[in-house]
Design goal:
- The chain is built from 4 helices and no strands.
- The longest helix has 11 residues.
- About 8% of the residues have low confidence.
Length: 73
Amino acid sequence: MKNYLLLVLLFMNTVLLAQNWQSNFQEAKVIAQKENKNIVLVFSGSDWCAPCMKLEKNIWMSDVFKAEAEKIG
């Protein structure tokens, strides 16, 4: 889990706007190409997966992550 979080933190510099997640990969590719941005693929489990819930709460929803994503986005 620690390695996974480290990987996520390393991608913070190239992540799309955190508040604008896309669930359709084809649409995400079009948007990314149009805006000249990278794509971060998140393969997470369902809403009952404890590590996935931690990732959501501690990383994706954190003010620090959102602020960094705003700078890049």
